[in-house]
Amino acid sequence: MTYIGHEDAWASWRSASSGERMHHAWILSGRKGVGKSAFALAAARELVAEDGIAQPQGDHPDIFYTSHPPKNDAEAKKRADGKPYELARNIKIEQIRKLQQRLTTRPTLGTRRVVIIDPADDMETPTANALLKSLEEPPQGTFFLLIAHRIGRLLPTIRSRCRVLSFPRISDDDMRAVLAREAPQASNEMRDAAIAAASGSPGAAIDFVELDLGKIHTLMQQIAERGDPDFSLRGQLAAAMGARPKREKQLAAIELARAVVAGHMSGVGRDQIPALVESHAELVRLAAQAPTANFDAGLLIMEIGTLLSNLAAARSAA
């Protein structure tokens, strides 16, 4: 299956893999939800396949996929029992060291193997430095695919040793086609909210539909357009978020607020620009902190509402 927007990435990958010297390390860079993981797994299968050697349909012994582990032993037991479990926030250094031990052996079926780190930008500095040793001296026949949602978070030393494959944002029209196919039950309001928040990521848009952000998007638009002097809209916004929203919903709300601010940037007067820039910068800060910080959900959504209300106040003043 070829995902929307992957055509150039496949062309670059296959051109490189058919050459005499395939680069040993690649960064797959783009927004979360554009299909980088699916690309990595498909590309890895192409790379390890060799004529005359039967390839397994399921897990491949020469493709090592590393991602977030369970949060703790209790969550690991849930995974072992086939139950839903919570993930750790980062890829651990122990995972990289265990992986490196496996790389001391030869590939199982052929002469090549592929290591996928998903996402590589969720490694802390000691973990990234441990991986760097393998990138600097890769075992023969070993290739690395590092998935990065935010390439700027990768160490410069890692980026300098990798070739980058970029995955672009998807157009709104293509996003609507994806949502019509994958989420036919969603209302037009829900789809518009998902497209606005996802910023060109089909996977993120589908996730946002499942998080039911339509009402939240409408309230954010109202606050940004006419303000909220009596805090009533912010109260409705907090109620729409719920008392104990999941972290995923909090992250989605921040991204949605950023989209609302961005949507107000065209056609504004010069006097309004500082307020827009300040609100957007604060939302960027919250987005960077939210994956690891333990924000109070109620205070977070009220802060978002206040940032949006400031836009209306700046417009009125202008």
UniProtKB/TrEMBL annotation:
Residues 70-79 have a biased composition (Basic and acidic residues). InterPro entries: AAA+_ATPase, DNA_Rep/Repair_Clamp_Loader, P-loop_NTPase. SUPFAM superfamilies: P-loop containing nucleoside triphosphate hydrolases. Signal peptide: none annotated. Residues 22-171 form the AAA+ ATPase domain. Residues 53-79 are annotated as: Disordered. This is AAA family ATPase. It comes from Aurantiacibacter sediminis. The lineage of its organism: Bacteria, Pseudomonadati, Pseudomonadota, Alphaproteobacteria, Sphingomonadales.
